[in-house]
Every structure is written in C-alpha cells, then in structure tokens.
Amino acid sequence: MFLKKHLFSSPEKKQIVEAISKAEKLTSGEIRVHVEAQCKGNALDRAAEVFYKLEMNKTVLRNGVLIYVAYEDKKLAIIGDRGINEVVPDDFWDSTLEVMTSHFKQGNFVSGVIYGIEESGKHLVKFFPYYAGDKNELKNDISEG
Q1: What is the DSSP letter of 52?
Q2: Adjacent-strand bridge partners of 57
Q3: 113 near 16, Cβ under 8 Å?
Q4: Is the pTM higher than 0.70?
C-alpha cells in the first residue's frame, strides 16, 4: 500500500496558511496546524506535546490554538492554551472536531483543516478580539512531524 509522505501539496499548504492569516486578523489569538502520519496513543496527549514543543504556551495572553492531525492513524485534536481554557466550557472544541471529522471521512482534508481554522478564529474573537498593535507571535506555517 502506498502511503503519502506529506498530507498536503504546496498549493494546499498555501491555502491553509492563508486561512490562518485571515482568521488571525479577527483575533489576538494564535492558530497553528501540526500534521504527522502517525500518533501512538491519545491524540490530545500528543497535541499537548507538540503544543509545548512549538512553544505555543509562550504567547502573551496564553491564547494559542493547535489543530493536530495524524492522518494515517485518523486522529485529530484541537488544544487551546491556559488563557483559552480558563474562559471556555470543557466541550468547547467538540462541534468543530465533529465537522472536521466529517470532512476527513470524505477525504476532504484541506477543507476540514480550513474549517477548523475558521471556526477557531470565530471562537477566539469572542474572548480574544484583535486589538491595535497586536503582533503575530507564532509562525502561521504548518509544522510537520
């Protein structure tokens, strides 16, 4: 069986990065996407590891969001930093994950990730609106493991 080395092509990566940039214009929150082929164990635990490895916990307002995808193992997680978790309900990301999962089941990985980014931006703006002088604290690129 042929397995993809990378989930997204260069043009698809560009679409995703543009979606991150657009979403971050609405909020002071920071959004990143991490993609890897496999996830041994729990996706949320692995997302937390990646979150700290990418130093997403170092934003001023602690309002980073990581969308984590392990495509071969069909695992997905969204994790927010302490600042977000202090103001949102425990099931805050569940509906976003459900819709992303339905996109993925149909093989629509790009649209699924972009949906997650757009929804993250919409959620973040309620609690962390964009303010004048806000700086982009984290890279908008897709990290891969």
Answers
A1: H
A2: none
A3: yes
A4: yes
